[in-house]
Amino acid sequence: MNSTTLYNSYGHANLTAPDVPLNFLEQSWVSIFEGRNEWLIVTILSILVHELNYFGRYIPFLIAEYIPFLQKYKIQQDKTFTNEMKWHCLKSVLFAHFVIQMPLMVFFHPTAVRIGMNIREVPFPAWFTIAYQVVICLIIEDFFHYVAHRLLHTSFLYKNIHKMHHEYTAPVGLAAEYAHPIEQLILGTGTFVGPMLFSLLGEFHIITMFCWISVRLWQAVEAHSGFDFPWSLPHIIPFWSGADHHDFHHQTFTNCFSTSFRVWDYLLGTDKNYHAARAKKAAEAAAKAKKGTSSVLPSPQQGPKQQKSTSSAKKQKEH
Question: 298 in a domain, yes or no?
Fold first, then answer.
Protein backbone atom coordinates (compact mmCIF):
# COMPACT_ATOMS: atom_id res chain seq x y z
CA MET A 1 0.00 0.00 0.00
CA ASN A 2 1.48 3.32 -1.11
CA SER A 3 -1.46 5.35 0.15
CA THR A 4 -3.58 5.36 3.24
CA THR A 5 -7.16 4.29 2.68
CA LEU A 6 -9.68 5.24 5.34
CA TYR A 7 -12.58 2.84 5.66
CA ASN A 8 -15.91 3.63 7.24
CA SER A 9 -17.62 1.27 9.67
CA TYR A 10 -19.32 -0.62 6.84
CA GLY A 11 -16.14 -1.45 4.97
CA HIS A 12 -16.43 1.03 2.12
CA ALA A 13 -13.42 3.16 1.28
CA ASN A 14 -14.39 6.79 1.69
CA LEU A 15 -11.13 8.73 1.85
CA THR A 16 -7.61 8.25 0.58
CA ALA A 17 -4.69 10.18 1.97
CA PRO A 18 -1.91 10.29 -0.66
CA ASP A 19 1.50 8.81 0.01
CA VAL A 20 1.00 7.99 3.68
CA PRO A 21 2.29 4.41 4.09
CA LEU A 22 0.66 2.00 6.49
CA ASN A 23 2.74 0.04 8.96
CA PHE A 24 2.50 -3.72 9.36
CA LEU A 25 -0.16 -3.60 12.08
CA GLU A 26 -2.35 -1.23 10.10
CA GLN A 27 -2.07 -3.36 6.95
CA SER A 28 -2.92 -6.45 9.00
CA TRP A 29 -5.91 -4.62 10.51
CA VAL A 30 -7.28 -3.83 7.05
CA SER A 31 -6.75 -7.42 5.87
CA ILE A 32 -8.60 -8.87 8.88
CA PHE A 33 -11.84 -7.27 7.72
CA GLU A 34 -11.49 -7.88 3.97
CA GLY A 35 -14.33 -10.13 2.81
CA ARG A 36 -15.47 -10.82 6.37
CA ASN A 37 -18.37 -9.78 8.57
CA GLU A 38 -17.32 -6.73 10.58
CA TRP A 39 -19.68 -7.45 13.48
CA LEU A 40 -18.31 -11.00 13.85
CA ILE A 41 -14.67 -9.88 13.72
CA VAL A 42 -15.20 -7.12 16.32
CA THR A 43 -17.05 -9.53 18.62
CA ILE A 44 -14.32 -12.17 18.42
CA LEU A 45 -11.59 -9.57 18.99
CA SER A 46 -13.47 -8.12 21.98
CA ILE A 47 -13.70 -11.56 23.61
CA LEU A 48 -10.03 -12.34 22.95
CA VAL A 49 -8.85 -8.99 24.32
CA HIS A 50 -10.85 -9.52 27.49
CA GLU A 51 -9.93 -13.13 28.19
CA LEU A 52 -6.24 -12.86 27.30
CA ASN A 53 -5.74 -9.78 29.44
CA TYR A 54 -7.75 -11.01 32.41
CA PHE A 55 -6.20 -14.45 32.75
CA GLY A 56 -2.83 -13.39 31.33
CA ARG A 57 -2.49 -10.74 34.02
CA TYR A 58 -3.51 -13.19 36.75
CA ILE A 59 -0.99 -15.92 35.83
CA PRO A 60 2.11 -14.09 37.24
CA PHE A 61 0.33 -13.62 40.58
CA LEU A 62 -0.76 -17.27 40.54
CA ILE A 63 2.86 -18.32 40.04
CA ALA A 64 3.97 -15.95 42.83
CA GLU A 65 1.76 -17.86 45.28
CA TYR A 66 4.06 -20.89 44.89
CA ILE A 67 7.40 -19.07 45.16
CA PRO A 68 8.55 -18.98 48.83
CA PHE A 69 10.82 -15.97 48.31
CA LEU A 70 7.85 -13.83 47.23
CA GLN A 71 5.62 -14.67 50.19
CA LYS A 72 7.04 -11.77 52.19
CA TYR A 73 5.29 -9.46 49.72
CA LYS A 74 1.92 -11.04 50.34
CA ILE A 75 -0.29 -8.54 52.18
CA GLN A 76 -2.39 -10.95 54.24
CA GLN A 77 0.09 -13.73 54.90
CA ASP A 78 -2.24 -15.59 57.26
CA LYS A 79 -4.83 -16.18 54.52
CA THR A 80 -4.70 -19.01 51.98
CA PHE A 81 -6.50 -19.26 48.65
CA THR A 82 -7.24 -23.00 48.60
CA ASN A 83 -7.77 -25.11 45.49
CA GLU A 84 -11.45 -25.41 46.36
CA MET A 85 -11.73 -21.63 46.54
CA LYS A 86 -9.88 -21.28 43.23
CA TRP A 87 -12.24 -23.72 41.51
CA HIS A 88 -15.35 -22.03 42.93
CA CYS A 89 -14.06 -18.61 41.90
CA LEU A 90 -13.04 -19.77 38.41
CA LYS A 91 -16.47 -21.28 37.72
CA SER A 92 -18.20 -18.08 38.77
CA VAL A 93 -15.85 -15.88 36.74
CA LEU A 94 -16.25 -18.01 33.60
CA PHE A 95 -20.02 -17.93 34.03
CA ALA A 96 -19.86 -14.13 34.26
CA HIS A 97 -17.60 -13.87 31.21
CA PHE A 98 -19.61 -16.08 28.88
CA VAL A 99 -23.18 -15.70 30.13
CA ILE A 100 -23.26 -12.07 31.23
CA GLN A 101 -20.43 -10.23 29.49
CA MET A 102 -20.32 -12.04 26.15
CA PRO A 103 -23.88 -11.00 25.19
CA LEU A 104 -22.85 -7.41 25.91
CA MET A 105 -19.86 -7.85 23.58
CA VAL A 106 -22.22 -9.10 20.89
CA PHE A 107 -24.06 -5.77 21.06
CA PHE A 108 -20.87 -3.74 21.33
CA HIS A 109 -20.30 -3.42 17.58
CA PRO A 110 -23.69 -1.94 16.62
CA THR A 111 -23.45 0.40 19.61
CA ALA A 112 -19.93 1.47 18.60
CA VAL A 113 -21.09 2.16 15.04
CA ARG A 114 -24.09 4.14 16.27
CA ILE A 115 -22.04 6.48 18.49
CA GLY A 116 -19.44 7.05 15.78
CA MET A 117 -16.50 4.99 16.99
CA ASN A 118 -13.90 4.36 14.28
CA ILE A 119 -13.46 0.69 13.49
CA ARG A 120 -11.83 -0.02 10.12
CA GLU A 121 -10.25 3.38 9.74
CA VAL A 122 -6.49 3.53 9.19
CA PRO A 123 -3.95 4.78 10.03
CA PHE A 124 -4.36 4.19 13.75
CA PRO A 125 -4.32 7.16 16.13
CA ALA A 126 -0.89 8.39 17.23
CA TRP A 127 0.46 6.78 20.39
CA PHE A 128 0.12 10.02 22.38
CA THR A 129 -3.53 10.29 21.32
CA ILE A 130 -4.18 6.76 22.54
CA ALA A 131 -2.28 7.48 25.77
CA TYR A 132 -4.12 10.66 26.73
CA GLN A 133 -7.52 9.18 25.84
CA VAL A 134 -6.81 6.12 28.00
CA VAL A 135 -5.76 8.38 30.90
CA ILE A 136 -8.98 10.42 30.55
CA CYS A 137 -10.98 7.17 30.51
CA LEU A 138 -9.17 6.11 33.71
CA ILE A 139 -10.08 9.40 35.41
CA ILE A 140 -13.74 9.20 34.35
CA GLU A 141 -14.05 5.54 35.35
CA ASP A 142 -12.33 6.19 38.67
CA PHE A 143 -14.88 8.86 39.63
CA PHE A 144 -17.81 6.72 38.44
CA HIS A 145 -16.48 3.69 40.30
CA TYR A 146 -15.95 5.63 43.53
CA VAL A 147 -19.55 6.92 43.58
CA ALA A 148 -21.09 3.59 42.50
CA HIS A 149 -18.90 1.61 44.91
CA ARG A 150 -19.92 3.75 47.89
CA LEU A 151 -23.57 3.29 46.92
CA LEU A 152 -23.02 -0.47 46.74
CA HIS A 153 -21.92 -0.31 50.38
CA THR A 154 -25.26 1.08 51.53
CA SER A 155 -27.21 -1.45 53.56
CA PHE A 156 -29.70 -2.73 50.95
CA LEU A 157 -27.31 -2.82 47.97
CA TYR A 158 -24.51 -4.40 49.97
CA LYS A 159 -26.70 -7.14 51.40
CA ASN A 160 -28.35 -8.02 48.09
CA ILE A 161 -25.60 -7.30 45.54
CA HIS A 162 -22.11 -6.29 46.67
CA LYS A 163 -21.73 -8.84 49.46
CA MET A 164 -20.84 -11.54 46.92
CA HIS A 165 -17.67 -9.69 45.89
CA HIS A 166 -16.60 -9.45 49.54
CA GLU A 167 -16.68 -13.20 50.11
CA TYR A 168 -12.90 -13.04 49.65
CA THR A 169 -11.58 -10.95 52.54
CA ALA A 170 -8.10 -11.59 51.18
CA PRO A 171 -8.61 -10.90 47.47
CA VAL A 172 -6.74 -12.58 44.63
CA GLY A 173 -6.41 -11.55 40.99
CA LEU A 174 -8.78 -14.24 39.80
CA ALA A 175 -11.59 -12.71 41.89
CA ALA A 176 -11.35 -9.24 40.30
CA GLU A 177 -14.60 -9.90 38.40
CA TYR A 178 -16.12 -12.24 40.96
CA ALA A 179 -19.29 -10.25 41.56
CA HIS A 180 -23.08 -10.22 41.31
CA PRO A 181 -24.36 -9.80 37.71
CA ILE A 182 -26.04 -6.50 38.60
CA GLU A 183 -22.80 -5.19 40.08
CA GLN A 184 -20.96 -6.14 36.90
CA LEU A 185 -23.48 -4.19 34.84
CA ILE A 186 -23.29 -1.15 37.12
CA LEU A 187 -19.52 -0.93 37.33
CA GLY A 188 -19.10 -1.98 33.70
CA THR A 189 -21.04 1.12 32.69
CA GLY A 190 -18.24 3.27 34.06
CA THR A 191 -15.77 1.55 31.75
CA PHE A 192 -17.81 2.55 28.70
CA VAL A 193 -18.59 6.18 29.64
CA GLY A 194 -15.21 7.57 28.53
CA PRO A 195 -15.12 5.87 25.11
CA MET A 196 -18.75 6.86 24.49
CA LEU A 197 -18.05 10.55 25.22
CA PHE A 198 -14.93 10.56 23.03
CA SER A 199 -16.86 8.88 20.19
CA LEU A 200 -19.76 11.34 20.43
CA LEU A 201 -17.61 14.46 20.78
CA GLY A 202 -14.66 13.59 18.57
CA GLU A 203 -12.45 10.83 17.25
CA PHE A 204 -12.12 7.53 19.08
CA HIS A 205 -10.79 4.36 17.50
CA ILE A 206 -11.65 0.81 18.54
CA ILE A 207 -7.90 0.19 18.85
CA THR A 208 -7.89 2.78 21.63
CA MET A 209 -10.89 0.99 23.12
CA PHE A 210 -8.96 -2.28 23.22
CA CYS A 211 -5.94 -0.52 24.80
CA TRP A 212 -8.23 1.03 27.41
CA ILE A 213 -9.92 -2.30 28.23
CA SER A 214 -6.47 -3.91 28.58
CA VAL A 215 -5.28 -1.21 31.00
CA ARG A 216 -8.51 -1.45 33.01
CA LEU A 217 -8.26 -5.23 33.33
CA TRP A 218 -4.60 -5.10 34.36
CA GLN A 219 -5.47 -2.49 36.98
CA ALA A 220 -8.40 -4.53 38.34
CA VAL A 221 -6.43 -7.79 38.58
CA GLU A 222 -3.45 -6.03 40.16
CA ALA A 223 -5.68 -4.31 42.76
CA HIS A 224 -7.04 -7.73 43.79
CA SER A 225 -3.71 -9.57 43.56
CA GLY A 226 -2.98 -9.62 47.29
CA PHE A 227 0.70 -8.80 46.64
CA ASP A 228 2.53 -5.52 47.22
CA PHE A 229 5.88 -5.81 45.46
CA PRO A 230 8.61 -3.13 45.58
CA TRP A 231 8.04 -2.64 41.84
CA SER A 232 4.25 -2.28 42.18
CA LEU A 233 2.86 0.95 40.74
CA PRO A 234 1.97 2.65 44.08
CA HIS A 235 5.71 2.76 44.86
CA ILE A 236 6.25 4.57 41.55
CA ILE A 237 3.03 6.62 41.33
CA PRO A 238 2.08 7.64 44.91
CA PHE A 239 -1.55 8.40 44.08
CA TRP A 240 -2.12 5.05 42.36
CA SER A 241 -4.50 2.82 44.29
CA GLY A 242 -2.88 -0.60 44.00
CA ALA A 243 -3.25 -3.86 45.89
CA ASP A 244 -2.37 -2.60 49.38
CA HIS A 245 -5.04 0.11 49.20
CA HIS A 246 -7.78 -2.17 47.89
CA ASP A 247 -6.75 -5.07 50.10
CA PHE A 248 -7.56 -2.95 53.16
CA HIS A 249 -11.05 -2.40 51.75
CA HIS A 250 -11.61 -6.17 51.58
CA GLN A 251 -10.23 -6.63 55.08
CA THR A 252 -12.40 -4.02 56.76
CA PHE A 253 -15.36 -3.60 54.34
CA THR A 254 -14.93 0.17 54.75
CA ASN A 255 -12.55 2.86 53.46
CA CYS A 256 -10.63 2.85 50.15
CA PHE A 257 -13.49 2.87 47.63
CA SER A 258 -11.39 4.11 44.71
CA THR A 259 -10.35 1.89 41.85
CA SER A 260 -7.38 3.46 40.01
CA PHE A 261 -6.37 6.53 42.01
CA ARG A 262 -6.47 7.48 45.70
CA VAL A 263 -7.64 11.03 45.04
CA TRP A 264 -11.34 10.74 45.91
CA ASP A 265 -10.65 8.73 49.06
CA TYR A 266 -8.20 11.43 50.16
CA LEU A 267 -10.46 14.37 49.31
CA LEU A 268 -13.57 12.85 50.93
CA GLY A 269 -11.80 11.36 53.93
CA THR A 270 -12.56 7.73 53.21
CA ASP A 271 -8.98 6.60 53.71
CA LYS A 272 -8.35 7.77 57.30
CA ASN A 273 -8.71 4.30 58.81
CA TYR A 274 -6.39 2.93 56.15
CA HIS A 275 -3.63 5.43 56.95
CA ALA A 276 -4.09 4.92 60.71
CA ALA A 277 -3.84 1.14 60.34
CA ARG A 278 -0.77 1.33 58.10
CA ALA A 279 0.94 3.82 60.48
CA LYS A 280 0.28 1.49 63.41
CA LYS A 281 1.65 -1.46 61.46
CA ALA A 282 4.79 0.47 60.53
CA ALA A 283 5.33 1.54 64.16
CA GLU A 284 4.96 -2.04 65.38
CA ALA A 285 7.43 -3.26 62.76
CA ALA A 286 9.94 -0.55 63.75
CA ALA A 287 9.58 -1.39 67.46
CA LYS A 288 10.04 -5.08 66.74
CA ALA A 289 13.14 -4.42 64.66
CA LYS A 290 14.59 -2.18 67.38
CA LYS A 291 13.91 -4.79 70.04
CA GLY A 292 15.52 -7.48 67.93
CA THR A 293 18.64 -5.37 67.41
CA SER A 294 19.03 -4.55 71.10
CA SER A 295 18.70 -8.21 72.11
CA VAL A 296 21.55 -9.21 69.78
CA LEU A 297 24.03 -6.52 70.90
CA PRO A 298 25.87 -7.19 74.24
CA SER A 299 25.22 -4.78 77.08
CA PRO A 300 28.14 -2.65 78.44
CA GLN A 301 28.25 -4.72 81.64
CA GLN A 302 28.54 -7.99 79.75
CA GLY A 303 31.59 -7.00 77.72
CA PRO A 304 34.20 -6.76 80.53
CA LYS A 305 32.87 -9.83 82.34
CA GLN A 306 33.11 -11.89 79.16
CA GLN A 307 36.60 -10.57 78.54
CA LYS A 308 37.66 -11.34 82.13
CA SER A 309 36.19 -14.80 81.94
CA THR A 310 38.03 -15.47 78.69
CA SER A 311 41.33 -14.30 80.21
CA SER A 312 40.87 -16.58 83.25
CA ALA A 313 40.18 -19.54 81.04
CA LYS A 314 43.30 -18.81 79.04
CA LYS A 315 45.46 -18.67 82.20
CA GLN A 316 44.06 -21.95 83.46
CA LYS A 317 44.85 -23.56 80.15
CA GLU A 318 48.45 -22.29 80.27
CA HIS A 319 48.95 -23.78 83.80
Answer: no
Express as a percent the part of the chain with pLDDT over 70: 86
Domain span holding position 236: 4-280
Number of domains in the chain: 1
Per-position DSSP letters for the chain, written without gaps between them: --SEEEE-TTS-EEEEETT----HHHHHHHHHHTTS-HHHHHHHHHHHHHHHHHHHHHHHHHHHTT-GGGGGGBSSTT----HHHHHHHHHHHHHIIIIIIHHHHHTHHHHHHHHT-BSS-SSPPPHHHHHHHHHHHHHHHHHHHHHHHHHHTSHHHHHHTGGGGGG-SS--GGGGG-S-HHHHHHHHHHHHHHHHHHHHHS--BHHHHHHHHHHHHHHHHHHTS-B--TTSGGGTSTTB-HHHHHHHHHHHSSS---SSBSHHHHHTTTTHHHHHHHHHHHHHHHHHHHHHHHHHSPPTTHHHHHHHHHHHHHHHHH-
Tens of pLDDT along 66-122? 999 999 999 998 888 888 999 999 999 999 999 999 999 999 999 999 999 999 999
Structural domain includes residue 10: yes
Inside any domain, residue 296: no
